[in-house]
Amino acid sequence: MKIAQGFSQASTFDSAIKYSELAIALAKKIGLKKAQAAALNILAISYWYTDNYPLALARQMDALKIWEETGNKRGRAICYGNIGLINYDRGNYPEALKNYLIALRLNEEMGNKELLGITYTNIG
């Protein structure tokens, strides 16, 4: 997963997609839900950066489902923020705002100032 993340950060998205998919398959095989959701998030971001919004949204929703199943509020907040960004880039501003506000509420509940700042920036 760290390899996929490195490729994503280096804007080498084809490699990030490849290694994210490998990480997802491995995490799923050995039952590591957190790793699976994190790899799905990297995959979604890679698709988003390549303007493949349908796949970005689908993979982000897959990650969100896992975070909901595991009760991971931080993971959910990040997913909702990313879903907002994807919808914003698609021009679906009401849906973007809806997701930003969900992320905002979750970040407020956690008292996560870093994610609160990011979310307020996205809303603004």
Structure description:
The protein is mainly α and 124 residues long. It is 86% helix and 0% strand. The chain has 7 helices and no strands. Helix 2 runs antiparallel to helix 3 and helix 3 runs parallel beside helix 5. The protein is globular and about 35 Å long.
Number of helices: 7
Strand content: under 5%
CA-based shape:
globular
Helix share of residues? over 70%
List unreliable stretches of 5+ residues.
1-8
Q: Write down the Rg.
A: 14 Å
Average per-residue pLDDT, rounded, comes to 90
What's the SSE pattern? HHHHHHH
Largest sheet: none
Our measurement of the CA-to-CA distance between the termini, rounded to an integer number of angstroms, reads: 32 Å
How many distinct beta strands? 0
Based on secondary structure, the structural category is mainly alpha
In short:
With about 120 residues, the chain is mainly α. It has helices spanning about 1-10, 15-30, 35-50, 55-70, 75-90, 95-110, 115-124. The radius of gyration is 14 Å and the shape is globular.
List the defining traits of the structure above:
124 residues; mainly alpha; 7 helices; disordered N terminus
SSE blueprint and pairings:
Elements: H1 2-9, H2 13-30, H3 33-49, H4 53-70, H5 73-89, H6 93-110, H7 113-123
Helix pairs in contact: 1-2, 2-3, 3-4, 3-5, 4-5, 5-6, 6-7
